[in-house]
Specification:
elongated, 64% helix, 81 residues, single chain
Length: 81
Amino acid sequence: MYVCADILSTVGLGLDIVGVILIWAFSLGKPLSIPDSTGKEYSVSLGTSADKADWKKALANLGLPLIMIGFILQLIAVWVN
């Protein structure tokens, strides 16, 4: 039974790491609102429009579910153990 728990824990940790890397690599964050001297606010975001391609958004959005699945697998591994 310990082997199964070890495998679940290892797979869960791997999914967590992959999820964090996807979010870090492909998520550009929320735009910042920066005021100028007249009080008018401008929206500033990181990256270019090419950085906001649909496939990059899809990979960034895949990161959080991978982290959640990995966390659940680690919890199951602790419970099984």
